Amino acid sequence: MHLNLKPYYWLLLGIVVVFVLIGLIGNVIIPGGINSQFWRKMGPYVVFGLFLLGVASLVPVLLKGFLVAQYKIGNSHLPLVQLINQHSKQVLLTVWVIFGIGMGVALPYMIKDGFFEQAQVAALESDQSK
């Protein structure tokens, strides 16, 4: 495989750290009295964007893991494994394009159905307070 996975590992690690920090900050600052409407409105967009970025950066790591596993179990001679190994960048770009097309189809419906709306956040908070 001709992909350098270091940037993807660092990106995944950074996203996990950001998610942990968002959780800690959200549980410490918001109950402490700092309650910004801007962050309440932008929070779902930020978290969803980070999630999508994390999923996209996980694809090359999983592709490399798949190829390593195929080589370890002795399937390196199979034409499909050789094809994926020789064209790993094209496979990666194809998966990302398919993800992008799927997101392009789903996102308008998510917005229309209120996926990012404040009302859902308020409903979740009222359920947690019970």
TrEMBL record:
It comes from the Bacteria. Keywords: Membrane, Transmembrane, Transmembrane helix. The chain crosses the membrane at residues 7-30, 42-63, 91-111. This is Uncharacterized protein. It comes from Spirosoma validum.
